[in-house]
């Protein structure tokens, strides 16, 4: 008697990803470690990042202060750990908000077409004519600072704004491809509501580029926050932020105390690197042909 | 026989003396390259208010009097050869030099002084005179002859005659001003030691020796180049030998870096600075309308204790009140310690502070400190103050703004407490105290308050001709200002200039606006 | 074809108009006043009347609509106005600095192409070997490293190792090439590293795609040497997207320059932009943003045209 055919083993997505995209898995692990340290900063960081201790100012890395101290005697390691909190929070929130808004606009433009689509395209073109940092600079200069719950929402808006048109454009073309399919027309003929068509039929097609772009834009957001803080227009003292740790005041001391800039710079690079690796590998895994 | 010994003795003595003299003998020639961190928006001294103007442009002009930099606060004649003051302090007569020429060859006379000063006192439409208010006391100017100019004052003014040494009171050509009162905004024509050569926007400003300068044999330099570079780049350029100096001031770590790298090739000059940082409380916003709250916040600051550590990382150091510590009319340390906020017993001060806050009903005070986004010294002092206030249970959020929105916030009253500054070109209560008199009399009173007692004391000390009486009035002013605590001084600045050892003939002064005419500067190379 | 070109050209106009209006509005909302800044930034006691008179002189008290109209009509005649800070013509201020920024951009592009294309080819040819992984990691690092931090490290390194810092004044290339390059090669490298990373990645991925095409297999089957296959056949077709990236990234360079010029203290467009923003110099910021946006749009247009010429499938949808 022949054995009954066995059901094919279901691939666990995470393990599959880890096996086929080792670099991506590495990126994911680093991101995870950063996220954990950011969340658990209170437990992991050896010192209060804002505690001034003039007696130990400009100290080289030592057993007491593994990454040295800055001009106020604050522990650089603790500031880097808490800086992860700022970077990841701002990076994630701006990317998430920007990408989601962009995706919604993109799908809506693809679905409704007509005047709305033309308007969206027009505004997208206008916004995409600005280099990202210039757009963010102008938004920050206009809005200033808007703190709530310990987060600067205007800064997040400034960083998120350049993301919206980018995502909108890509999602729109992905959604357009679906929209022209016969089954969408059939669904409309059957009387399904627009919302249902959009969310149940079109959205799944754009999930892949959406996820990839969120990851990629977190990297960009972290870099943008660092650049803005470096120019003095982002996060301000005494909040720990990697970009801020590289700016003006630190720049005065970097000859005497190079560790003040080496470690925050490494942190930025590592974070952006890992997110890019993750995003790239995600794209390779989901669909290498995707032009994102 | 005796005569010969005397002659030989004299000759030997002369020989022995000469090497010492030769070492100090200025050498002619060379171009002085130095850095300036910002660029002047236009070329008019009367409208300018920044060192970004003084450093590149000052060498083209002369003033009536100027400060004798190595002997500050002594003043000496620049265009004036000598001067006299009438017994009632109402008439100032200046005897001008002869043979002075403008850079285009035209002759200088008393008419030029008269027209230039009239422009400052009564600017024609479209012309900005930034310091007009300080010259209100001048009633009229006479020019009895081409070599004499006479100023008539309405009332005695304690700032005169030193005010005539202001580096901003450039003397322009009367002929050019009559043709076009805005001529100096885009054209440089003066009687100073250097002629204008070139200005490359964003790049540099060049001056070249004026051979017809009235001080024979000077200037020693062939020319100078003010290169517009900022911050660390300027220090690197000094270290790399490309520039000789930056004349505003270096931070302690810049100085240490340069000394370590260049050793004897670097000369460091240090001086107290007529600049200080003050905390301005917006008296129009609760709870800062309550003097107890303001005084409490001032008491919480450990000025004496913060001085040493802050001086290591920032360009600050001396502790003083409303006037620069070290100035003859400033409060002595003993007098200062009696004033609110200057006690050495910081624990007792902080206890009193907490008590005052409780009395005013704001024990858990939270507010925002609006600060300028400049690394030295605003950021470190801001961070320090927030830490001090934390120690009496007050939570402060640090808001750092670029200069433009910062000024907008302070002048429009759109802030709670701000870290403000007070800088002047000379020690002079008439100038330093403008910060503290009523808002309807002073445009830099960002506390937005009116206090007639202070106004009254200000007027009295301005008219006082007796230094002892003036000092008494100043102590009264200071005590009231610190008790009401509308705007309180925190710490005074400390000026450090680390320049190439080859740069000679330049002396540091307590103001970065003074001593920049470069007349006596020479390069030992 | 002509219809496509004309249509795209016409589309540029509303976009540019939109940019102009948006920038104008954004700036007017920004807190800060150039007059106050000019006169009071150093703490001088300047009266309110003086400030008011200056504002009037600069036209800041005119109603918003009239200022907008002035700006737009000026734009139409390519008159960018006068800087509110220096009162010099904007076109003059920009012209002096454009030379430097363009030169750094071109140098960075050269660096990017010189490094990116060969590395990309190597990575594609030796796909999935350690060479490929190493190149990909270096490229990723290039994307991740903030160019201003890299710039700071370069300066630190030069001072620490050679006790030497780059020249502080700009010498035009044709006047003294050595002095010119001694100043500009460092920022070009700092910015170019990131640029080269983009080029490496794009070269690698398009080459990989192209190498899988049928005609490549045919060439190999015909016995053409591998080297010829890659260089002659594959690269020709892979070049198009690579050129696109080089062109688009060149436009994006402006963003990188804004921060890099601060670090290296270069008298370029980036620094002018930051200074103008800090001075609340509306006319200058408006003009610069228009210039940059205009440049972007132009580059996009050229790239699209290139695609249309070379790839008929794209011509019009």
Structure description:
The complex is a heterotrimer of chains A (292), B (525) and C (317). In chain A, 70% of the residues lie in helices and 1% in strands. By secondary structure, chain A is mostly helical. In chain A, β1 and β2 (151-152) form a beta hairpin. In chain A, α1 (13-20) crosses α2, α4 runs parallel beside α8 and α10 (194-231) packs antiparallel against α13. Chain A is globular. Chain B is globular. Residues 1-22 of chain B have low confidence and may be disordered. Chain C has twelve helices and no strands. Chain C is globular and about 85 Å long. The chains are: A mainly alpha (292), B alpha+beta (525), C mainly alpha (317). Chains in contact: A-B, A-C, B-C. Chains B and C meet through α6, α13 and β15 of B and α2, α3, α5 and α11 of C.
Write a brief caption for the model.
Chain A is mainly alpha-helical.
What's the N-to-C terminus distance of chain A? 52 Å
Unreliable segments of chain C (pLDDT under 50, ≥5 consecutive)?
Answer: none
Class from helix and strand fractions of chain C: mainly alpha
Gyration radius of chain C (Cα, Å) is: 24 Å
User: What's the shape of chain A?
Assistant: globular
What percent of the residues of chain A sit in helical stretches (DSSP H or I)?
55-70%
CATH level 1 class label of the largest domain in chain C: Mainly Alpha
Name the chain pair with the biggest interface and residue counts per chain. Answer: B-C, 52 and 47 residues
Q: From the 3D coordinates, which CATH architecture of the largest domain in chain C would you assign?
A: Orthogonal Bundle
Kindly state the number of beta strands of chain A: 2
Let me know the average pLDDT of chain A. Answer: 81
- Spatial extent as radius of gyration of chain A: 23 Å
Main sheet characteristics of chain A? 2 strands, antiparallel
Which regions of chain A have little confidence, pLDDT < 50, spanning 5+ residues? Answer: none
Percent of residues in helices of chain C: over 70%
Tally of helical segments of chain C: 12
Q: What is the mean predicted local confidence, pLDDT of chain C?
A: 81
User: Widest sheet of chain A: strand order?
Assistant: 1-2
